[in-house]
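can u pls check wat happens w/ protoporphyrin IX containing FE
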Amino acid sequence: MTERIYLLPLWLRIWHWINALLIITLGITGTSIHFASPGALLVEFSLAVRIHNFAGIALAILYAGFVVANAISGNWWQYVPKPPGILQRCWKQTQFYCWGVFKGEQEPFPVTKEVNFNALQAITYWFIMYAVLPVTVLTGLIFLYPQWAPDKLFGVDGLLPVAVLHYLSAGVIILFAIAHIYLGTMGKTVTSLFKTMITGWHEH
Ligand code: HEM
């Protein structure tokens, strides 16, 4: 029997899809800027810079909105990894993603209205949204306003560590997005989690 739960409020779904669009835009233009060449890899350099700056500021504002709305709505609690037995729950979930799902096994920790994320999702979403993304946004803003950067850091020009952190944290987000889209196919059917993220209704 199929059970339906109304899980995701409209603001969260709107945030998610604008966020995804901005991250894809930033990924494409950021790659074009980093690997700029006269033959233009993806987007012409000066156009890529203008789009990247605009999308970066939009992402910074959207991120601030996410943190505030997540706090006010109480949705932040989903993101907190809950310790008792968390390693065992992560291992069970990994086994499900690696082979259980291909053998038609049941999802080990089905979604409820109270607990939306399994242990792996809580750890990953917490890490990306509250540890990695703020670093990318902050270092991006410092790049845009280099007068904020320290003159020297660790004996080198202050902008160099900022550049390295921006590049590495952005790389982590792109790797996350690829894995995230793949794991998004592991719902009741291949498309059901994507539908949940559009309609707010979860089915299992
Ligand atoms: C085209 C790109 C993307 C697609 C197709 C996509 C798809 C999905 C799907 C299907 C879900 C629901 C499944 C679940 O609960 O895990 C979801 C949730 C989520 N996604 Fe994405 N996603 C994309 C990009 C991103 C990016 C770039 C980020 C962050 C940098 C992100 C962060 C999240 C978060 C935090 C949730 C949980 C939201 C909540 O319930 O509080 N997504 N996404």
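The chain has a mean pLDDT of 95.
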